[in-house]
Amino acid sequence: MLRKRHRAAGVGAPAAIFAALGDETRLRLIARMSDGGPLSIASLAGGFDISRQAISKHLRVMSDAGLARSGRRGRETVWQLEADGLAEARRYLQMIAKEWDDRLRRFKVFVETR
Amino acid sequence: MSTAVSDRIEKEVLLRAPLSRVWQALTDAGEFGRWFGVRLDGPFKAGTPISGRITPTTVDSEVAKMQKPYEGMTFEIVVDRIEPKKLFSFRWHPFGVDPKVDYSREPMTLVEFTLHELPEGVRLKVTESGFDKIPIARRAAAFTANDGGWAKQMELVQKYVEKTT
User: Which residues in B lie closer than 8 A to residue A101 (C-beta atoms)?
Assistant: First the structure.
């Protein structure tokens, strides 16, 4: 029901954000980045069963979605969270969080008044 | 991190109405349709598919306006369980309203309504689960229409973020 309204509101990026978040590795990377400032790929990859290349790929997906950004520290590439991306997703969610709420509100009116 | 967190939506509401009234409004297909906004082609029967057409709700004019563009679109659910005055559940394709898309081969989510009688009324809980089985591209779209899972997931992310600040 809400798709049109989102379009009308000019929201395009959230779909990419949600897709970027819809993966356990990426969620764990977010958790890891939120634990401390900019981290190298080596630090981020520690403890994962997947290659650094795969981690880099995940980071790029997150970067494309506006959830993370890279910078340089000496010769290293370091990554950190992009707070705005998370905030945007959260705002967006508040907007869409209403569908079941709406249905339940309608149901409440329906059973309490007739 | 548990994937279950991203797999479900949970909502609760206290209804100041008798249990029998709530049960009927929920499981009589005609009454269901009036608040939900759909005209169904028959009664709910456990384990049985039922279809209908989107028909703007009569309960809320604002919502009715939003549903108007979808009027006449096919609406399909497969009733799962009916346990009188306790539980009603069905499966469906979340936000399966794009007429150009064939959803039939995609996994469905499970919607469960559970009722608890209290002195002051009935506590109704709705959960929708199974989002992790839905193809990722569709999941983003499904979640835009089926809130909560992502809200929950974002809470989880938020917890991680706040843990260190």
Answer: 11, 147
Amino acid at A51: S
Given an 8 Å threshold on Cβ–Cβ distance, is A89 in contact with B139?
no
Beta bridge partners of B54: B38
Is B102 within 8 Å of chain A by CB?
A: no
Q: Which tens digits make up the pLDDT trace of A40-91?
A: 888 888 878 888 889 999 999 888 877 888 988 888 889 988 776 565 545 5
User: Predicted ipTM?
Assistant: 0.72
Q: How far is CA B59 from the centre of its chain?
A: 17
Q: Which domains does chain A have, with CATH numbers?
A: 3-113 (1.10.10.10)
Please tell me the total count of domains within chain B.
1
Q: What are phi and psi of B53, to 5 degrees?
A: -130, 140
Contact (CB<8Å) A86/B31: no
Pair of tokens at residue B68: 């108007």
User: How far B66 CA sits from the closest chain A CA (Å)?
Assistant: 7
Name chain A contacts of B63, Cβ cutoff 8 Å: 1, 102, 106
Residue B92's identity, in one-letter code, is W
Q: Which residues contact B164 (CB under 8 A, 6 or more apart)?
A: A34, A35, A36
Of B81, B72, B33, B78, give the one whose Cα is nearest residue B54.
Answer: B72
Q: Which residues contact B40 (CB under 8 A, 6 or more apart)?
A: B29, B30, B32, B33, B50, B51, B52, B75
B114–chain A nearest CA distance, Å? 13
User: Which domain CATH number covers B35?
Assistant: 3.30.530.20
pTM metric for this prediction: 0.58
Which of B63, B140, B160 is the closest to A15 by Cβ? B140
